[in-house]
Amino acid sequence: MPSIELINITKTFDEGKVLAVDNISLKFNDGEYIFLIGPSGCGKTTTLRMIAGLENPTNGKVLIDGKNVDGIPPEDRDMGFIFQHFEIFDHMTVWENVTFGLEMRGYNEEYIIEKAEWALKMVELLENADDYPSMFGNPGLQKLGIARAIATGAKILIMDEPLGSLDPKVSKVFRHELRNLIKDLGLTAIHVTHNQEEAMAIADKIIIMRAGQILQMGTPYELYENPKSIFIANFLGETNFLQGFVLKLLENEKIKVWTRLGGPKIMCNNFGSKFNLDDSIVIGFRFEDVYLFPKDYDFGKSPYDWSKMQFFEAKLENTRFIGATKRFYLSLDNGDNFLSVKPGIFEENFNPGDILIVGIHIDDIHVFTAPKDLLHELSLM
Amino acid sequence: MSKINKKLKENSKNEDLKLPLNLKFDRHFSKPIYRKSLDSVVILFFILVIIGPIIYIYLTIFLNLPTIYRDVFNDEILGDLKWRIILEALAVSFSIAAIAVLIDIIIAFPTAIILTRYNFRGKKILDAMVDLPMAVPTSALGFSVLLYWGIFGVNPGFLLILLGHVIFTFPYIVRNMKIVLEKTDTLYEDAARTLGAPGFTVFRTITLPMMKEGIIAGAILAFTRSLGETGATIILSGLVETAPIVIVGFRRQLELPAASLIAGILIAISIILLFSIKFFTRKVGLPIKSVWPGFEKHLSHKSLRVIRDALTGTVLLLLILIPSFYIITRVIGADIIDELFLGKDYKWAYLYVAFMNSIYIAILAVFINLLVGIPFAFIIVKRSWGRIITILDTILDIPIAIPSAALGFAIFMFWGPAGIGLFQPGFYMILFVHITFTFPYMVRPIIGVLESTNVGVEEAARTLGASNMTVFRKITFPSIKQGILAGCIMVFTRSLGETGATIVVMGNIRTVPVLIVDWVEANAFASAIFASTVVIIFSAFLILALRAVRTQGGK
Amino acid sequence: MDDISLKIKDGEYFIILGPTGAGKTTLLKIIAGLIKPDSGRIFFDDKDVTKRSPGKRNLGFMFENYALFPHMSIYDNIAYSARVHSRSPVQTQIIVEEILMMTLLTGRNEALPEEMSGGMKQRVALCRALMNLEQTKLLILDEPLKALDAGLRMNLRRELLLMAKSKLLELTVIHVTNEEQEAMMVADRIAVINNGKLEQVGTPYEIYYKPKNLFVANFMSEINYFEGIFVKNNKASWDINTNGKHGDKFFSKIKKNLIPIPIDIGLSEVFASYVQKSVYEKIQNGDKVLLVTRANHMKIRLGDRTKEKHNALHGKIFRRKFMGVFYRFEVLVNINGKEKIIIVTNPATAEIYNTFLENLEVTVYFPKELGIVFKHPGDNVIKEVLKLE
């Protein structure tokens, strides 16, 4: 069964002037659906191309099934590759496209017919076998691209922005079909995208890259719940950030944080006692983890346990309904702004200008050391 | 590397599968060793054929400096007469080229805009007509011009040469302008319009600067074509001598040192011109910052546009289109049967032989250039050799930039009896010269399509298991077919129409353009009219074929 | 483009939403005067401008991929409009530099567009368009965020909205997009366009809760649909006129002007849903109808709860996937012997993480206030709307 391992891979372009991938090591396990994500120019596509053999690493080794594949050209690596712009052979029919890879491997005719029919059936294009690809729209072309890649029986599927050329609405449906197909076939798949939402939606495991390095890897759940850095918290999902400093050290590995310019004082976890008195820190909490209550809410009557909630007051500036969710734009006395996201059918009587009570569960607050330049960390350009 | 290949193959589960023979063959020839040897052969050919003669001619000039000095500057009888002839010829050539290009640009601007931005009936026909002078042998064209302006009493001389040169250089400028205009998105013009710019301001500040490089590329091509043209010029020149005519004259009188000198000067100037213009155009800006709203608004007025279009149409018709085809109307009145077929000197047989010579030479030139041109285009586009590629890419244009008579002479000196001595003037030397000066016409279109082919598709084929050769055969070749065909037709028409280079190396062999020149000089007008009409119609078919190929490629 | 009439109000942020190739850009170009309409007229402030040249319409047009003049510096790009209108050079310089400062682009005056990142180009293009506004404060944005990374897009949406609504500018904005999230996030009103036709115009709320047809309903979120029969006389087994547990302000707002009807989708219990009056008038007893629910309006409970819940289906969790804010479930149910996948998205909580595992038996249901009913449009339409082309 296929496994892929990268050992200390470095890749530079332009005679060493541009460092695309900076000494990374990775291991992909059999049957995993893995995403490489990061902002433009982070090295994710280069990494992918080195695995496929379309680029050669400047340094380091790529192992496939434990064998070093250095110098083995892409045609001998037996992987399926799916491209952003499909790269369908448009002078060939659908059938000729799908059988291309099989013929290159010298299979006999019966086997070729059997596999090609199977692959076309998987993507529901069997009826169109004699058509030319120019008849298809983008989704059809990508289906053909997928059929062409899986027809060869490759166990590893490499995808470079496979949904990037589709309309947003279409890609939101298509991505689930893609994942289901990959899971049904038991393929090991590596998928590069710049769309975090897509990665969260269908990945087994996500690797976040920036400037040629791996920042963090894990399941979507792990990354979402425990982002290691401000950048990741901001890059995956939507997060509010407030600056402040450690006002008091408390028992049970907890600290009290005073947000900047006399903002609210908020209690946070301090696991491993990482932070000390007066440290500059940034706290982050997800939009959807911000609970809202009217000012006169009677917490005593409610059946829930509020002991771990942090409460403070904020002014509601604006509300926007965006379908599945509602967004509440809030401001603090010190001028900081933050957002709360609730389901679209959330009942409320709030009006702009109201003072609300904001509640955040202590375990939903992430604490980070303040970076030199917060704007840079939050910049996604 | 191949060992690892084998190992991986052996280990993979489909070891007992047998690849079909053609794929095995592909796999075998995809090995780097074959690629490397092919690269070396092609580059060796390129250096020998293109650079060799040019270097050699400077070598001869340098080695024979005393002879040249004695012969050209200090002859016992003539003194420095030959030098004065050379100087005057150069002056004439350069002024004609400069004025012709200037006139061309003025007419070409509105023509290109009309042909790209407007839609009207007969647009395709007009487009083809404008392209045609490029494909017709210039001697036939020159003869047509001679007859046309004869009606108005214009006699051979400076003015008539100029009128001829304007015609056959015109398509080069219009075509280059059209290509950039088609490429530049109307989006930028739209943006400028929404920002409040009137039509003329949009043209001056947005369209024109974006066309700059295309205009200059066309102008260089037209300028060098004018500088090197021989066939039409001999017919139209009367007593005026241009540089190529002087070369031909010296060569005929076997004044080799003098001919070397003027060929060397012409080649040097052309190359310097090519590089300096390429270099300076990037730096020269246009006044895009200042705007004269009132004035330009007036210029954008509808009525002015109508006047401009009408004027362009008239000038195009009277100065370029009618003179090109006027000769066809003269077929009827000419005494063809008596002179050509019933004459005692068997002119028809000469014509037949010359025609077949032209065709053979053109076909062989296409074939050989095809063999070398495709791998050469691949080297330019695909190899990452850094500076070497830039140099090869620039040198490639030299045969286009230098006058073909000079190039022909350089090749005669290098390969002929005076140099290596491999060829005697005659069929094979003509072929050799034609291969050299048409080489870029083959390679450029192929480079063009290769650059625009999608690398992704090739990568897709490789990830599906195709070796390099298979990828070329099954994926790359089908998509560059059109470019190759376009290159072939370009080479064919250029070879068919060439006069200057042929005259220099032909010996006793005649091609059609040379025959036309001979007959015009011998006052056998009826036969010349017939021969010209035949080649014009033949070329028209070729240009239509070329356009059909292009439009197919566009799909 | 087929017979479209629209009225955009002063100061409104108006979104034109539709898939690629729907004719959105053509519509914008007609408004800007870059394309002449075959028939019909265009009015600005009640003045007919159909024949006015684009240069005289004085609107700001930001093109898809920005169309920054590649041969001009950032400064010259932004100053272009002022120069063409021959405004005072000194004043122009002051304004342009102020704009560059506001957009954090100071010091890059002489940079060429090709040297800039996507986000910076977007800002320059916006500034260039704004410079052209005079009395008509109409800004047209053609897919302004399309070329940007997803994360950056989220930030810039907020900025766009802030700018459009700022008291200083008081802009009317027409913004074209193919992303429904972007539309909902910034729009005052949305026009949904498909195949050159106007499908619906309304506030985000109307478009989302009261879509006029299946295309609009499906375009705004993932949906589930059931084919059923309107059974007027055969009253639902549960009283459709009683209020659900949500007898509150929110639901009463949704069901305003709606009529509750029973629908038989082939299960033992008859379903119920509210329906718009216009649709109600067109259907008769026994007619085929289409019952649509949004995936995020479906609720999910463990075990077989079809006895106690209405509009409920029983099945098992086929797949589940954590998506950040939401969990997405594919639940396999059985309707009349046919297997069907029901999509359910629910806010991610620790409870779901721990208890709702794949292959467990569950019940999914939805309140009748959140059902959407259409007259059955025919199998072809369903296929066309829901297929991926």
Q: Your description of this structure?
A:
- The complex is a heterotrimer of chains A (381), B (555) and C (389).
- The relative contact order of chain A is 0.11.
- Helices cover 24% and strands 35% of the residues of chain A.
- Chain A is elongated.
- Chain A contains 9 helices and 20 strands.
- Chain A has 2 domains: 4-231, P-loop containing nucleotide triphosphate hydrolases (Rossmann fold), CATH 3.40.50; 238-378, Nucleic acid-binding proteins (OB fold (Dihydrolipoamide Acetyltransferase, E2P), Beta Barrel), CATH 2.40.50.140.
- By secondary structure, chain A is α+β, with helices and mostly antiparallel strands.
- In chain A, strands 6-7-8-3-9-10 form a 6-stranded mixed sheet, with helices on both faces. In chain A, strands 13-12-11-14-20 form a 5-stranded antiparallel sheet.
- With 555 residues, chain B is mainly α.
- Chain B contains 26 helices and no strands.
- Chain B starts with a helix and ends with a helix.
- In chain B, 45% of the residues are buried.
- Chain C has 389 residues and is α+β, with helices and mostly antiparallel strands.
- Chain C has 2 domains: 13-209, P-loop containing nucleotide triphosphate hydrolases (Rossmann fold); 222-386, RNA polymerase II/Efflux pump adaptor protein, barrel-sandwich hybrid domain (OB fold (Dihydrolipoamide Acetyltransferase, E2P), Beta Barrel), CATH 2.40.50.100.
- Chain C has 12 helices and 18 strands.
- In chain C, the strands form 4 sheets. A 6-stranded mixed sheet of chain C has the order 4-5-6-1-7-8, sandwiched between helices. Chain C has a 5-stranded antiparallel sheet with strand order 11-10-9-12-18.
- Chains in contact: A-B, A-C, B-C.
- The interface between A and C is large, with 49 and 48 residues.
